[in-house]
Amino acid sequence: MTVSGTVVAAYGRQYRVELTDGATVLCVPRGKKSEFVCGDGVTIDRLDSQQGVIQALAPRQSLLYRSDPGREKLIAANVTQIVIVVATEPPFSDELITRCIVAAESQGIAVLIVLNKCDLEDRLAAAATMLAPYERLGYRVLRLTARRDAGPLTKHLSHHLSLLIGQSGMGKSTLINALIPGARAPTRELSHSLHTGKHTTTHARLYRPNRHAAIIDSPGLTAFGLHHLSSAEIAESFVELRPLLGSCRFRNCRHDREPDCGVQAALSRGEIDPRRFAAFRALCAEIN
Fold first, then answer.
1. DSSP per-residue codes, 245-279
2. Under a CB-based contact definition with an 8 Å cutoff, are residues 215 and 158 in contact?
3. Which of 82, 122, 137, 278 is deepest in the core (most CB within 10 A)?
């Protein structure tokens, strides 16, 4: 029997597919290709109540992935919102936030930053200062403490397929457990000797906190390669640079040392955060 569904978990070459009636079936792809991810719409041949074979992939509205030279890692498909989870402890990577935002902007995906563990008041001010440049650019920053109350996040998930993404130890799985009773996403304590988080989520998983929302929990990240983007695409993904890109003397301006560069002029006027501009130049240098 041929039916349609959504990939809600991926384990190597096996995929858990949720059907329109809510039942789930463990499926394998037909042939050697194994390129499906959480959020994908698929058509399957249902073999019995437990098993199926994926026959076709529905057109994707978006695809988030990271890439290094010669290698790509698919993350999630059809996402409409990326939820970047950071915390007051352990320290979070400003570079990783920027890379996640660039990936989202390149796909036209909304961005929400969640600052977790706000009950650690002695660390809150430093974390808020790190996030201030993103707030000034218009990115939403939601402050909460997941182990006490994740409720403030709920309204931001409505009518979205959201991807939770971030470093290990930021509290993504704690958020999932708070939002979805019975999810039983594994959590672990921080490694105090290294002051870092420990990996708990080993594969992406899609949950439905209510009938108006879906959320994908993904494994913790330490890096996010963007080698699939060109310098021009990276520039377009920095919202503060976007309106300036047609103001340079040269069409192929790299916004480095070229004369009459509109971006450099805005930087000298203090209209662009130097930290953000340095991140932009570093990303462009990495792929060139």
1. TT-SSSTT--SSS-TT-HHHHHHHTT-S-HHHHHH
2. no
3. 82
Cβ contacts of 67-71, under 8 Å, gap ≥ 24: 67/225, 67/226, 67/227, 67/228, 68/225, 68/227, 69/227
Look up tokens 């988080």; give the residue. 197
Among residues 235, 234, 229, 227, the alpha carbon closest in space to that of 261 is found at 235
Taking the CA atoms of 190, 37, 141 and 227 in sequence, report the sign of the dihedral they define.
Answer: positive
Token code pair at residue 211: 């009938």
Spell out, as residue ranges, where the chain has pLDDT lower than 50: 189-200
Q: What is the pTM of this model?
A: 0.90
Total residues belonging to the chain: 288
> Amino acid letter at 43?
T
How is 169-207 classified by DSSP, letter by letter? TSSHHHHHHHHSTT--------BTTTTB------S-EEE
Structure tokens at 177: 């457990």
Residue 85's nearest CA partner among 201, 234, 6, 182 is 201
99-118 pLDDT, tens per residue?
999 999 999 999 999 999 99
